[in-house]
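hi! just following up on the protien thing from before. the input was this:
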Amino acid sequence: MEEEIRKKAIERYIQGECPKSNYTDLNRSKKWFSKWLRHYQMGHKDWYKDRPKGSHASPSRISQIDRKRIIATRKRLESKSFAQIGTSATMGIIQIRSSSPL
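and the predicted 3d structure came back as:
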């Protein structure tokens, strides 16, 4: 249903109808109309279809060995007085001690 409304709005625009009367007749906002006009003008075949809003990549996990190295380094840093123990300090020490960065 929503896809048909999008197609109808753009068809009316192509036929020369004023954008404001177009989106007000369809009970839609100017922002809504502009969005779908932009999608249409980009030339995609399925411009009127919704696109997924979520991330396409799943979060990556570090190996168990790297996890243990990080924890051990953090504990060593925490035992020293006035040592920085944040992420950048931990990763810096790990990179210095190993030839391959995480």
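Residues 64-97 form one domain.
The CA atoms of residues 7 and 64 lie 52 Å apart.
cheers
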